[in-house]
């Protein structure tokens, strides 16, 4: 028996050695080049290779990932990049840091010098990877972290578009109950600010309507999104707005014979008999700008926060068969004021649904407040 | 004779357990199944417009093309290998532990408490404490179904399976509630571990691989050369025999399930602190289920488990590279993986059973 034990131990030890050799050499590369010079990226167009990390699959044809990928395609066309210069990693769950890291490293292995991560949960992993690979530019969508050399984040003023879509919803509702499927609860400023802008748009045309919010606690959960929409419709809501990734709430609205406002991509494609309009992202506006800057050598690791003016956010063409009369004119007026800078949605004193007041007369909320501190609901919002 | 006359209708095909196949025949059958898998996968690839040879080549090179790729492949292998060893302990005594997923998670949760809130102590001490508590966490979670089986003879398959979902939702609760990262401005996530609580890399891969290989040796020796290991296989063969031989079956069941869960718990700790650097809902990520396949394909032999889990990791890592290289939808990559598994697992059926057609003359 002892002999056998020895034999097994021998095998194990040699395995350890073999594995060690396979993974060996140069494991401490990252610590050696510690010269913290500020790197200025200037990448010739032909040398560009762009890695894109997606949480789901663009082939879904609508929703969050599709919209981001459309932006990448728009950038590719505009700058005339070859297909081989884009590497896509799809279905990289953003709650799986190891998978995220593997995907990023595979992009780098393929020679990528720019990485776009499109989902929030990639943030911490991207931060760590940016430190490990100082020669690669990392750009993270929707997060709040950055560094001083090769890692930035990008997002946009989708609340502007939500305000406009609120006008369409407020004019359309008959029951004066408007539902909203929200990915996250009150303490998430991105989602809550979005509901508020939507509700303020509604309030600007319809003082009687109330907004009913249902939280799914997930950015992407097809089932929960369907259930939330169902629950809202059964409570009498006849327009369903949404801040979640799939068109399921719109599909539910169509099934129930009510209306809705889509998000991310133009969801009249998914639910033509229900969707009044959609708040949409034209990510191409950012991707084109960022990559152009990397080519020109002017890219800086700064926070990007574009809006209607930059062409990053908008509402999809109104569904003429469904919208209430006068909708177009009202939206056009509000949009003009936004573009000219006369109106910024979160202007002046705003009343919340628990009787408090936010903001100051003659001022508007700062970007910092909008992105991180909207933890209150506008006065016409009811949370169920 | 009586029976077949009575029913009169014999099914067209029957499955019959075969006598033990010779080693050579088994190997031939397995090789054939792999070839068939590649062939069927190849047809699928041709249909969607790719050259199967280059795609297969990409899978292999995707797992080995660089130092970084090999490291990533081994990183996928670590939790798979450890939890396969864990379930093997239980399977040896024919205790259907489908709960590796939950035990991995519990191990990770117990370890994470120290990584998040007691991380000021010296690095090595902290890691040792996290290790010990992952053993306790996973072990206790494995003990629950064993206790109920011993006491009330509950069905352990369902029991362990359902505990997985409880464990998963405990993470969700912690992430959305008490352990939420205070710096995340309302986004539900658990903070990344402090550097002090991260497992070190040895030769470019997190040190979990050393733990995994040591565990392989320990489990091998335990099952093969110790009295307790022998008792496990006796109980696995027959409870009655075991009782007759004076083996305390219930006590042994509790002990073995604690060990099984404890090993899975180690997988969770190693994944959280070595790879994820945080407690993520994906800490088990299906590994606990894949481990069941690995353990059985390896015929519960720890040495074979090392090989099988390595092959699984190659497939996983290579598929990911294949997906992005050819711009394949990741669903197509999943289909291909599924086809290969289908044939390989199907083969195991034919190793043990065969089809017998309806015989001409009844009453045989």
TrEMBL record, chain A:
Residues 54-338 form the ABC transporter substrate-binding protein PnrA-like domain. Keywords: Signal. InterPro entries: ABC-Purine-Binding, Peripla_BP_I, PnrA-like. It holds the Pfam family Bmp. This is BMP family ABC transporter substrate-binding protein.
TrEMBL record, chain B:
It is found in: Cell membrane. Coiled coil: none annotated. Its main location: membrane. The chain crosses the membrane at residues 27-48, 68-91, 98-117, 123-148, 157-174, 203-223, 252-272, 278-297, 304-323, 335-355. It is a multi-pass membrane protein. Keywords: Cell membrane, Membrane, Transmembrane, Transmembrane helix. InterPro entries: ABC_transp_permease. This is ABC transporter permease. It comes from Anaerostipes hominis (ex Liu et al. 2021). The lineage of its organism: Bacteria, Bacillati, Bacillota, Clostridia, Lachnospirales.
């Amino acid at each position: 028996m002892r002999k056998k034990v020895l034999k097994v131990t021998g095998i194990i030890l040699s395995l350890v050695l073999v594995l060690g050799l396979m993974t060996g050499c140069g494991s401490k590369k990252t610590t050696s080049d510690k010269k913290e010079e500020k790197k200025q990226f200037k990448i010739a167009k032909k040398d560009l290779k762009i890695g894109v990390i997606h949480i789901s699959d663009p082939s879904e044809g609508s929703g969050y990932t599709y919209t981001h990928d459309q932006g990448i395609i728009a950038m590719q066309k505009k700058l005339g990049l070859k297909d081989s210069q884009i590497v896509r990693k799809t279905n990289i769950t953003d709650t799986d840091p190891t998978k995220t890291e593997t995907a990023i490293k595979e992009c780098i292995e393929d020679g990528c010098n720019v990485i776009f991560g499109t989902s929030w949960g990639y943030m911490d992993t991207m931060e760590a990877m940016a430190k490990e690979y100082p020669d690669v530019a990392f750009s993270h969508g929707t997060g709040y972290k950055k560094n001083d050399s090769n890692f930035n984040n990008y997002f946009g003023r989708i609340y502007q578009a939500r305000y406009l879509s609120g006008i369409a919803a407020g004019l359309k509702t008959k029951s004066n109950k408007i539902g909203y499927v929200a990915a996250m609860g009150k303490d998430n400023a991105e989602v809550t600010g979005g509901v508020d802008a939507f509700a303020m748009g509604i309030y600007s045309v319809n003082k009687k309507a109330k907004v009913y919010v249902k939280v799914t606690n997930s950015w992407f959960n097809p089932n929960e999104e369907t259930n939330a929409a169902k629950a809202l419709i059964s409570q009498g809501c006849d327009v369903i707005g949404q801040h979640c990734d799939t068109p399921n709430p719109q599909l539910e609205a169509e099934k129930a014979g009510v209306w809705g406002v889509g998000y991310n991509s133009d969801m009249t494609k998914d639910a033509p008999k229900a969707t009044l309009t959609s708040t949409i992202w034209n990510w191409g506006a950012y991707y084109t700008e960022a990559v152009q800057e990397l080519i020109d050598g002017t890219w800086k690791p700064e926070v990007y926060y574009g809006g209607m003016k930059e062409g990053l956010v908008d509402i999809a063409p109104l569904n003429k068969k469904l919208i209430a009369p006068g909708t177009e004119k009202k939206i056009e007026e509000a949009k003009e004021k936004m573009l000219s800078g006369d109106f910024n949605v979160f202007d002046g004193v705003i009343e919340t649904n628990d009787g408090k007041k936010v903001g100051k007369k003659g001022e508007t909320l700062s970007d910092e407040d909008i992105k991180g501190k909207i933890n209150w609901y506008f006065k016409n919002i009811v949370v169920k | 004779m009586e029976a077949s006359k009575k029913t009169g209708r014999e099914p067209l095909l029957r499955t019959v357990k075969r006598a033990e196949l010779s080693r050579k025949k088994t190997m031939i059958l397995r090789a054939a199944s792999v070839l068939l898998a590649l062939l069927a996968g190849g047809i699928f690839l041709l249909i969607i417009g790719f050259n199967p040879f280059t795609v297969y080549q990409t899978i292999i090179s995707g797992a080995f093309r660089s130092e970084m790729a090999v490291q990533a492949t081994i990183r996928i292998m670590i939790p798979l290998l450890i939890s396969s060893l864990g379930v093997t302990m239980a399977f040896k005594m024919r205790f259907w532990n489908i709960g590796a997923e939950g035990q991995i998670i519990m191990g990770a949760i117990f370890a994470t408490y120290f990584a998040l809130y007691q991380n000021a102590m010296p690095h090595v001490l902290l890691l040792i404490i996290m290790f010990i508590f992952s053993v306790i966490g996973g072990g206790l979670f494995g003990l629950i179904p064993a206790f109920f089986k011993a006491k009330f003879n509950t069905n352990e398959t369902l029991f362990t399976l359902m505990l997985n979902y409880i464990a998963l939702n405990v993470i969700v609760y912690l992430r959305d509630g008490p352990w939420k990262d205070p710096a995340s401005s309302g986004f539900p996530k658990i903070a990344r571990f402090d550097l002090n609580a991260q497992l070190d890399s040895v030769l470019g891969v997190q040190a979990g691989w050393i733990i995994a290989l040591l565990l392989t040796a320990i489990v091998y020796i335990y099952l093969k050369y110790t009295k307790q290991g022998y008792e496990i296989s006796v109980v696995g063969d027959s409870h009655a025999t075991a009782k007759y031989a004076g083996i305390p079956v219930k006590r042994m069941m509790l002990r073995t399930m604690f060990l099984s869960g404890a090993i899975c718990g180690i997988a969770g700790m190693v994944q959280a602190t070595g790879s994820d650097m945080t407690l993520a809902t994906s800490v088990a990520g299906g590994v606990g289920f894949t481990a069941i396949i690995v353990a059985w394909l390896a015929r519960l032999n720890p040495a074979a488990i090392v090989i099988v889990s390595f092959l699984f990791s190659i497939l996983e890592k290579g598929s990911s590279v294949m997906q992005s290289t050819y711009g394949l939808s990741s669903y197509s990559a999943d289909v291909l993986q599924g086809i290969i598994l289908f044939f390989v697992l199907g083969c195991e059926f034919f190793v043990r059973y065969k089809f017998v057609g309806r015989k001409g003359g009844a009453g045989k």
